[in-house]
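dumping this here before i forget
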Amino acid sequence: MKTKNEKSFTLMEAIVAIFVITTGIVGVLSLVTQTISSATISKDKLIAAYLAQEGIEIVRNIRDTNWVGGAAIWDIGIGYTSDYRLDYQSSGFPDTNCNLSVNNYLKYDGNYYNCSTGNETKFKRKITISQPATPDCPAGDCLNVSVLVEWQEKGTIHSVAAQENLYNWH
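structure:
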């Protein structure tokens, strides 16, 4: 038998307590899901930034190889107003394995992103080379290299772009 001093939960108090606990758990799970999604996008943006910088470095490497090799023309082998997909493992410029097509994604072989071997990734890289004639980039002595890396995540297309002027070292 209960006395007047004994305290117990009523059905209403129990329902309110369950509601508060459930709301807290749903809120925490929502926050965890959003954090994981943000971490994935951040990781992909970092990879894309590295791939964009690598695209510029590939063209710089061709220019430097021409210069060090004593080539009479510093930009030999680099086409202008063209779009390329290439990598450090390419045998030529542009590499036929890296042709630009709508569904041609970079591949990852466990060590490197490339055009021909490994598992297909979600990243596409386009390198555009032009010869602008501006005061800070005179024609014949300068190349403008633009790199665009794109990928799709949960139905949204993301991209990272990089651009740099490369100059003749003469």
